[in-house]
Amino acid sequence: MKKLxxxxxxxxxxxxxxxxxIPTYSQxxxxxxxxxxDVYKENILHGKIDTISYESKTVGTTRRxxxxxxxxxxxSKKYPVLYLLHGIGGDEKEWYNGGNPQIILDNLYxxxxxxxxxxxxxxxxxxxxxxxxxxxxxxxxxxGFAVFEKDLLNDLIPYxxxxxxxxxDRESRxxxxxxxxxGQSLNFGLGNLDKFAWVxxxxxxxxxxxxxxxxxxxxIAKNQLKLxxxxxxxxxxxISFSKRTHDYLEEKGVPHIYYxxxxxxxxxxxxxxxxxxxxxxFKPVDVSSFPRYVYSxxxxxx
Length: 302
Ligand code: FER
What we know:
This protein is of the alpha/beta class. The chain has one domain (about 1-290): Alpha/Beta hydrolase fold, catalytic domain (Rossmann fold, 3-Layer(aba) Sandwich). The protein has helices spanning about 1-25, 95-100, 100-110, 140-165, 180-190, 210-215, 220-225, 240-250, 265-280, and strands at about 50-55, 60-70, 80-85, 120, 175-180, 200, 225-235, 255-260. Strands 1-2-4-3-5-6-7-8 form an 8-stranded mixed beta sheet, with helices on both faces. Strand 7 (about 225-235), helix 8 (about 240-250) and strand 8 (about 255-260) form a beta-alpha-beta unit. The longest helix has 25 residues, at about 1-25. The radius of gyration is 21 Å and the shape is globular. The relative contact order is 0.14. Bound molecules: 3-(4-hydroxy-3-methoxyphenyl)-2-propenoic acid. 3-(4-hydroxy-3-methoxyphenyl)-2-propenoic acid binds near residues 87, 179 and 206.
């Protein structure tokens, strides 16, 4: 009888531990950016933004990109690389001008929330005159966004890997972008799983390939991807391109985060995309947490 009571007691204590550990566990996911995430702070370490130029055999010109190196960047360490792509009306400076990614990332580094990485912001319009002028929808300009796949793989990545102290395996390479760049990221990332293990599309545009072309072999994608991130503003006119991709991935059992937040087609959503995606990459991923990525009004990541 005494023994039974003891067993009951042990069982009770064990259950208390299990119950208490649930809330701790559920705090693990990355939450919507809190107020102040994009505000410059004087008294923390800051990364550095530079312009780089590389010879593009694909386009036949010298092309530009911005590079953000993290606080404390050292040639004696090797870093993973995030390629961060702009939208149809932008160029290599669009993220910098509209989203101040260096402020968002500096603040996250100050809170120890990022694996140190280099961020490359290229010009994704791979045509001779790649300036963001005139009619952005002109056929030759739109076509340049598809040609950028070759420029990225054959010209820019080799340049970055020859000039910076970076890791070169697929698990050390991520690609994400906004709108037209979100479509590029899904197309190029999922189309080159030997090159990219982390893929993110923020408010992806109509250039996003149809799901069957994007992920023709769900088993390979499931096996190769570390993280596939798809986010969009709930009131974005382009949401159908994210939703159809999500629906297909869900049907085929390919793990991914589908994160819908209040908002339209603008930098508020894209900055939060960078805030959340950057915290998830280049570290262990818990696939079972993906369904818990649901927008929460009073989220703070503190
Ligand atoms: C389109 C609508 C929007 C399109 C591209 C976009 C190529 C891109 C928008 C953006 O990058 O912000 O029909 O076709």
